[in-house]
Structures are given as C-alpha cells and as structure tokens.
Design brief:
mainly beta, five-stranded antiparallel beta sheet, 1 helix, 67 strands, 49% strand
C-alpha cells in the first residue's frame, strides 16, 4: 500500500530560467539548500463539467510548467496554493500563475502545510524538514538517522509547532518547533505502519496505523490510545477532522470511508466504485467530506450521514492523490504519476434563474496549440454554462467556421456571451475530438486552456504489421506477418500484395529507395526485397545465415543493412551491386547520420560510425543500450536502459542532452515531430508519446491501452504530416494528428 504523500523518486530534468540565492535560517541545525532553478509560467487548463448527485461542477485540470509528478498540496499565504513534487516545491495563484522552486539536494518533496509563522513547511526525502518562505527561500532541518529517510504527513499543532510522521517503517511521530528543534514520540505498537495524521477538535493528535489496523490518539505528553477498526486489514490511509465532531478516515483495502467518535465508535461506508484506492481526505467548505480515489480517477464527496457521490476526472490516466481547500473555497488536488497536473473542483453553483448575459471576447486565433483540421471540413462549436446548458442569446445556434489552410486551423476572433466567469467550448468536426476550457478572469479576458489531443484513429489490417514506411504517392507500406505487403493510401484504401513466406517481428525493415521503389529486408529468407508501386516483387539473395535486420538509405544512394550473425554490414545499390564489410561486433540498428556517414549500434553495447567506404570506428560505449538508434533534429538518439533515459548525441559522440523518461517506458522507434519535439512508440506502456526538446513528456493513450497490448514496432511521419504507427497485438495501423498537441 502506498503511503500518503510519498512516492517514487524519479530523476528530473531541471529547466533553468533564473537563480535565487537562499537566505540562511535561524536554527543552528538548519542547512541552507544550494541555489536552485526557478521555473515560472501560466498553467494550461483543461476544463470539464461533471455532474454528480444532481449537481454540476466545473473541474479544472491545470498542467504545471515543468509537468513533474506531484504529491502534497496545501493552501498558503497570499491566497496561493502550494504543492510538492519530484525535487520541487511550487505555488500557484488561484488564476494559475505558477512558480516552481527546484531543490538540488533532495530527491523528493512530499507533504506540505502552512505553518503558524506563515512559512511553508515541507517533508523532504531523504530525511529532512524544509521551511520555505512565500518568496521561495528554503532552509532544511536534517533528521537523525534514527527517524528514517521518508518523513510525511506534516500538520499544524495547537502548540505553535509542526507534527509529522517520521517514516512509515518507523513508529515515531515527531514534533518540530519553528526553530527546528525536534522531539519524537513512539506509538510503542509492534508492526506499526503510520499513514495519516491530523489534530482533532479535542486538541489531541489522531493518526491512522495501517500496520495494526487501528486509529490512534496521542496526548500532548505522548500517551497513546488506540481503537481497532471494525474491518480487518482495512488498509488505513488519510484522516481529517470532520464538521460533525468525528474524525473521518479512508480504508484503501476495504474501499471504504469511515468515521470515529472521540470515544471510539465507528461508522463505515462503502465507496460505489470498486478498488478505487482512496488516499487523501479533507473537510470541505460545504459541510461535506471530500476525498481522492487514486486508482479510479475520481473525486468523492460524502455527507456526514454517509451519502457518497463521485466526480469522474477527464484525461488518459487521472490519479488524484492529495486534496485541500483553497482560499477561493474550492477543492484543490494533485494527480500523482501524471504530467504535473493539479486539479480544482469549483463548488460555486450557477443560479437556476435565467442567465444575465455579459459580453466576453473569445479570440480563438491565439489559442495554442492550434487545432488542425482539413480545409474542406467545417468546424463548429457551441458555448455552455456551468450547468452544461447551451447558452441562448447573441448566438442561439452553433457557429460554423471553415479553415483556410489544411491541417493548420487559424480561427477568427468570435464574440460569445455567458452569464458566468467560466465557459466551456466544445469542438466537433471531421478529424477533431477536442475541448477548450476557458476562464474569463474579471469578465473581460480569456485565459486559454489547451486543446486536448485528438484521439488516435485506427485502421484494421489483415494481419499484424511490423515494418512501416512512407512510400511513393503519399502511400504507407506495411510488412504483414504472413509475408504480404500492404499499402494504405490517403483515401483509406488498403491493398495487399504477396511478397514472401512470412515476416517475423524482427524481420522487416522498409524504406523508399532513390529509384521510387520500396525496399525491405526478408530476415527469415536471407535476402533483400524490392516492390514496385504496382506491386511487383523481386529479391537479391545474400547467402546463408545473412539474416538482414535493419536498413538505412546512405548518402551515396545505396541501401545499407545489418547482418548480425555473420557480424557484417551490407551495401546494396539499386541496380543490384552487393558489397559486405566485416565489423568489430554483431550490428543491430543502422541509421543514416546527419554527417553523411552510417551509424549503428552493436551487441557489445557500443555505438559505431561507418563511412560510405566501409570503415568502422568506435564512438562510445553505453552500459545498457536499449537496442534502438535514431536520428532527429540533426542529432543521433539512443535509449539508455540502465539510467532510464533518452540520450541525444552529436556526431562527435558527445552527449547533448539526457532526458529521464517516465516509469516503465521503453522507446522502440523514434521520429521528428512538429514544434521541436520527438515522437516515439513505447513498447513498455503500449502508447505513443511526445517529448519536447526541453524534456517535457506527453503520453497519448491509444486503443491498445484500452483493449489489448499493441506491441508497437515503428512510427513514421506519413500523409498529411500525421504520425503513423503499427500495433501488432491488434492487427492495427494507427495514426494521430500531432498538431493537436
């Protein structure tokens, strides 16, 4: 079971915009954190209207500038919302202006709270408590080794001090003064595994103990009273003081919300969604309790009599984690294991009376990124209020717009009307599946949200597809598992040509040659094939055990391919002239480099350069090379499986940048995309993904994630500059429009 406000410590690429010099703090044991990078920006917002329990709520999801994994959240000074994540503490205004402060010495910041001194107090991994000023100046109080390395669940006490759990593996609750002096108290319970912590109305400290399956109460002197939870092995997590005098807490394993009176009387309530993973809980300003359902991707609301409703969050994999009440009296939450998403549930109801219209200017032409649609298809939108009612007034009907340039919609400025400070604009049309949420701050300007990515589309193939390339006439060519080659034209027609006995997953690399024919490797039959645009197939034999694997078009106009078993690289001209070159180690992937040479990686975890005269030279070794080698933006790219990162390498062999990739990621094929980004297919997560050259990752969920594993093999830029990929597990050819990202 995961601890509240603790998580995996991931590497983080730190983006440098400006440097702060940190002020020293008063306590003797305080350590000043070295200079950090500060990232500032406006969050992009995705808004949606969610109905639950007969009410409608606007739920905003705000993407932080660094898109780091987030954990803790708390209301802070100057009406800001503060949050923690991988190597950072950040703050956001209620209008989503954000600053993120990166800490070089600490791998993770977990829970956070505003202290009685109007500073922010935060738990840090490994083993420290941080005190941050509203300006972002941080001092740290290291903890003794006895208290472990993962403090969490920090809260204010009635004694002008802060209290926190030392480590889930320990049985210590610790008090820290504003000067940084600590004193620990042990629960003295064998098998204790503390999780949540809060102070009750009785002035006592209450905590959940998942190890003993008890709710504990501690006095100021450290005396502990424990109450056994009725459901065994309940998996206790968050706890808070309720508006009814009871303490309310969550049971992860039992999938329940529960309450306990100060005298130890329990009530338990089943959460409607099974295995929802409840984690964080807070008393809302509306007299109800609000909690996060991490595994279900929902926010729950429970009244004190026990009535539960759930709000389903949008997005591919929403993981709501910690939750708090902001200065705007709305609910704010973090999403774990995501791309830096904070959420806000707006509790302000829309009057049921007829709306009073005020004019708001919505300038779609400045929306970024722009929504790409074909020229010949109209794009329509409708405007809704918070009740999700179509607004009547100045424009009683949907407004139809037509783009003037294919795949690059630049929409004209339009005036809409609304009775509220928030509107949602829904787009519909051919090749579109997107929503823009917009906030009208002050009734006169629009704060833009993002355009959600268009859902990837899929064409069923007769058999699983392996190799893929863009060929003559805006046509895609695909190797099918049964030895056939299929073409997919831009009008959606699929043609199939018999080519050989079979293609295996490792056996078909394809490219368009300078002769306008498509060439491919026939791994199983030791030969190179050629297919004309009319479908005629011929072969060049390579001899026994050649097993040609990867192929690239050299700067000399010849086809270059790897032969792993003989340990050589072949060169084939389009008129059939064959030459082979022995290389130091069995070669795997080969690409044409931006310097005019061929580049390949070998089984000895090394990268080599090969001139067009056939001379190999060793460039660099990689302890665990992930098998791929690609070219994008005039540099070479490879995957380092040991450090879980994509590396960008110049033709001198120097590493230009290193990008830590998301957990369980395994890039399999990579290509250049629009707006300074690279795209790859991820065989570890069965998805397509984009990475900007500043290191921000965006995962695009595909059909295979929702149904069967896709086992991606190749991604290429195809007709209309869309990105195309094969999904062998579903016999599918998928594509998406990168201009919607």
């Amino acid at each position: 079971m995961r601890n509240l406000t603790t998580g995996a410590v991931n590497g983080r690429i730190i983006l440098a915009l400006s440097l702060f010099v940190l002020a020293a703090c008063g306590a003797e044991q305080a350590g000043v954190i070295p200079s950090r990078d500060v990232l500032q920006g406006q969050a992009r917002i995705v808004s949606s209207v969610v109905s639950a329990g007969g009410k409608s709520y606007v739920v905003d999801q705000l993407y932080t500038p660094s898109e780091s994994n987030l954990e803790g959240i708390a209301a802070g000074p100057e009406r800001h919302i503060w949050f923690t994540g991988d190597t950072l503490v950040g703050k956001s205004s209620i209008k989503s202006d954000m600053s993120e402060f990166f800490m070089a010495e600490y791998g993770n910041a977990t829970s956070i709270v505003e202290g009685p001194d109007q500073n922010l107090w935060v738990t840090l991994y490994p083993g420290a408590i941080g005190r941050m000023s509203p300006k972002g100046h941080l001092a740290a109080f290291p903890l003794s080794r006895k208290l472990g390395s993962s403090p969490f669940s920090i809260t204010n006490g009635p004694d002008n001090a802060l209290w926190f759990i030392a480590d889930a593996s320990k049985s210590y609750i610790v008090r820290i003064t504003l000067a940084g002096q600590t004193k620990e108290y042990s629960t003295k319970a064998p098998g204790s595994k503390l999780q949540g912590l809060t102070f009750g109305n009785d002035g006592k400290l209450w905590f959940t103990d998942a190890g003993t399956n008890k709710i504990g109460r501690m006095s100021a002197t450290g005396a502990v009273t424990e109450f056994s939870v009725p459901t065994s092995n309940a998996g206790l997590s968050g706890i808070c003081q309720g508006p009814d005098g009871k303490l309310w807490f969550l049971e992860q394993n039992a999938n329940k919300v529960a309450s306990v009176t100060p005298s130890g009387s329990f009530e338990e309530y089943d959460i409607p969604t099974p295995a929802s993973g409840p984690v964080g809980i807070v008393a809302g300003p509306d007299g109800a309790l609000w909690f996060t359902e991490e595994l279900a991707g929902k926010i729950g609301r429970i009244t004190t009599p026990g009535k539960i409703v759930e709000l389903t969050l949008k997005g591919a994999y929403p993981r709501p984690f910690d939750i708090t009440v902001g200065s705007d009296r709305n609910l704010w939450f973090t999403e774990s294991e995501s791309y830096g998403i904070m959420g806000r549930v707006d509790l302000h109801e829309v009057p049921d009376s007829d709306p009073i219209y005020s004019e708001i200017s919505l300038s779609l032409k400045n929306a970024h990124p722009q929504l790409g649609v074909p020229e010949s298809f109209p794009l329509s939108f409708s405007v809704y209020d918070l009740k999700h009612r179509l607004l009547k007034g100045q424009y009683p009907n949907a407004i139809h717009l037509t783009t003037s340039r294919p795949r690059r919609a630049s929409l004209p400025e339009t005036i809409i009307t609304s009775s509220t400070s928030k509107v949602s604009v829904a787009f519909s049309g051919h090749y579109t599946d997107a929503t823009i949420g917009a906030n009208a701050n002050g009734g006169g300007t629009i704060q833009f949200a993002t355009v959600l990515p268009s859902a990837p589309r899929e064409k069923e193939l007769p058999r699983p597809g392996y190799g893929l390339t863009a060929g003559p006439g805006d046509t895609l060519w695909i190797c099918l598992a049964n030895g056939s080659i299929a073409t997919y034209s831009k009008d959606g027609a699929v043609k199939v040509y018999h080519a050989t006995t079979s293609f295996k997953e490792e056996g078909c690399s394809m490219l368009e040659g300078p002769d306008r024919n498509v060439w491919f490797t026939d791994y199983s039959n030791n030969r190179i094939g050629k297919i004309t645009p009319q479908g005629k197939v011929t072969f060049v034999g390579l001899g026994s055990d050649a097993s040609p694997y990867s192929m690239a078009l050299g700067s000399d106009g010849a086809l270059w391919f790897t032969e792993s078993f003989p340990g050589q690289i072949g060169r084939l001209t389009t008129d059939g002239q064959l030459t082979t070159f022995k290389v130091p180690s069995p070669p795997e992937e080969i690409v044409a480099g931006p310097d005019g040479n061929l580049w390949y990686n070998a089984s000895n975890d090394s990268i080599y350069k090969l001139t067009t005269s056939g001379k190999s030279s060793h460039v660099r070794s990689v302890y665990r090379l992930g098998g791929g080698l690609w070219v994008a933006y005039q540099h070479l790219w490879f995957y380092d499986t040991l450090n879980i990162q994509l590396d960008e390498m110049s033709t001198t062999g120097a590493i230009v940048q290193e990008f830590s990739v998301p957990n369980y990621c395994f890039p399999f094929s990579l290509t250049s995309g629009p707006r300074d980004s690279v795209w790859y297919v991820d065989s570890g997560n069965d998805c397509a993904a984009r990475m900007t050259l500043s290191g921000k990752f965006t995962v695009v969920p595909t059909y295979s994630q929702k149904e069967n594993p896709g086992l991606f093999t190749t991604i290429v830029v195809g007709p209309n500059k869309d990105l195309w990929f094969t999904e062998t597990g579903k016999d599918g050819l998928g594509w998406l429009d990168p201009t919607t990202m």
